[in-house]
Amino acid sequence: MNKADCVIFLSNAQSDLTRDDYTFVKCHVVGLGINDEVTPENASNKKALIVVNKWKTVAQNLPPRRQEQEWLRKRDWILWGDSKKGKGEKFKGLSELFKRTLTIVPATTSQRVLDEDSGSYERYGEAQLDDVTDALKNILLEEGIQIKLERPKIILKRSLSEVDPTGWTILRDL
Predict the structure, then answer these.
(1) What own/partner pairs with CB < 8 Å and gap ≥ 24 does 141-150 have?
(2) Strand 120-124 relative to strand 111-115, pairing
(3) Is 95 in contact with 80 (CB distance < 8 Å)?
(4) How far apart, in whole angstroms, are the C-alpha atoms of residue 48 and residue 4?
(5) Nearest Cα to 70, choosing from 82, 85, 89, 57?
(6) Closest by alpha carbon to 109, among 127, 121, 133?
(7) Phi and psi of 133, rounded to 5°?
(8) For residue range 52-98, what is the model confidence (pLDDT) as tens digits?
(9) How far from 15 is each of 131, 139, 170, 173, CA to CA, in Å?
(10) How many Å apart are CA 93 and CA 87, to the nearest integer?
């Protein structure tokens, strides 16, 4: 996780993120301790894509205007949780954990049902991953150049700082 320049989270649209999700991201993605305070300085510089899966299942019977309202509510919950209400009790939102803007997109993957006769899973439903594909393309276009330029510099700096007992620089990471 430490070497990742971009992380992708898959969230289920049928449930909200919770304090446990926040703690997991804080400790395992950002790399802070459970009791560490999040500041703009120690927030993660990783690019994050959050995919809200099964969105069509949640929104399919709603009128288009209501679908948009529900999407905005879901997006705001992921970004700020209940912190905008001055509470921050259930979930603070993920935005404070990252220095960069989070990309949040809806998706729908196919369903799987066990066919008891054959013992195998059958897929049904249509996958809708256009927003995910577009978001990944944008991340690669925006970040690809920066990642390509920065990664060798980071590795070289780290390698040059390691010196073996004979005085020769160890370049094993190159």
Answers:
(1) 143/5, 143/6, 143/47, 147/5
(2) antiparallel
(3) yes
(4) 10
(5) 57
(6) 127
(7) -60, -45
(8) 999 988 888 999 999 999 999 999 999 998 877 666 567 889 999 99
(9) 20, 26, 49, 42
(10) 11
| Cβ atoms within 10 Å of 150's Cβ, excluding its own | 12
DSSP H stretches of helix in the chain: 19-24, 55-59, 64-80, 130-161
What distance separates the 2 farthest-apart alpha carbons in the chain? 72
Whole-model pTM?
Answer: 0.73
Q: Are the CB atoms for 113 and 122 separated by under 8 Å? A: yes
Residue 75 burial class via C-beta count within 10 angstroms: exposed 0-12, middle 13-18, buried 19 and up: middle
| Size (the chain), residues | 174
Question: Alpha-carbon torsion 82, 53, 1, 34, what sign?
Answer: positive
* Residue 4 one-letter amino acid: A
